[in-house]
From TrEMBL:
GO molecular function, one term: undecaprenyl-diphosphatase activity
Listed GO CC annotations: plasma membrane
Record-annotated Phosphatidic acid phosphatase type 2/haloperoxidase domain positions: 57-168
Record field: transmembrane: 25-46, 58-81, 101-122, 129-147, 153-172
Keyword Transmembrane: yes
Originating species: Companilactobacillus allii
One matching Pfam family: PAP2
Protein name (Swiss-Prot/TrEMBL): Phosphatidic acid phosphatase type 2/haloperoxidase domain-containing protein
Length: 199
């Protein structure tokens, strides 16, 4: 393990353990925010049904996330291996429970950067920078709670960002995505109609 990587890890992880408030915030970002993201995407999917652009954004986020995760697991994860900091280094502030395995790259970081990058590209408001800040905070929180090295987060962020940019360029206005959206909408409408008729 690179000494600089460990030094940066120590710098961030050593901030844990001083305040219950900051520790709890770190745990929320590192462990639970991914569930909030899933709920938010489901909410937008059903309550923004008439917005084609929103639905495209959500589908693109999902596709980019899946592709990024596959690259992270099947390619990056097989090229390089190291266990989590808490399993290797002494005196690590481990704030969440995690099974010991390959720490490289960070899955949570991949998920957030792949989806937040799509949201950033899609958004036209100044609030779009908040998406990137959120992704960065999630990545840092994984170091803070002691389950990832900076290199895990950096590579995860890179994979998610690059895949999302490429996916957006080639798929957002593609016939494939348009046809997929039409197919999904037809299936949803048929389900809703059948439920209304049954009632």
């Amino acid at each position: 393990m690179d000494s600089y990587d460990i030094a940066i890890f120590r710098l961030v992880n050593n901030m844990a353990g001083f305040s219950k408030i900051t520790d709890d915030i770190g745990i929320v970002f590192a462990k639970y925010l991914v569930y909030a993201l899933a709920v938010a995407m489901i909410y937008l999917w059903f309550f923004k049904r008439k917005s084609i652009r929103t639905r495209k954004m959500l589908i693109m986020g999902f596709i980019s996330c899946i592709i990024s995760e596959l690259i992270g697991k099947l390619i990056a994860g097989n090229i390089y291996y190291h266990r989590q900091p808490f399993a290797v280094l002494p005196h690590v502030h481990q704030l969440i429970v995690k099974n010991v395995g390959n720490s490289f790259p960070s899955d949570h970081t991949i998920v957030f950067f792949s989806i937040m990058t799509i949201f950033f590209i899609y958004s036209k408001s100044k609030a779009k920078y908040g998406y990137l800040i959120l992704a960065v905070l999630v990545g840092i929180s994984r170091i803070f709670v002691g389950v990832h090295y900076p290199i895990d987060v950096f590579v995860g962020a890179s994979i998610g960002t690059i895949v999302s940019i490429i996916s957006y360029q080639y798929l957002f206005n593609s016939k494939f995505l348009n046809n997929l959206l039409i197919f999904i909408n037809k299936k949803e409408n048929s389900i809703f109609r059948s439920r209304i008729n049954s009632n």
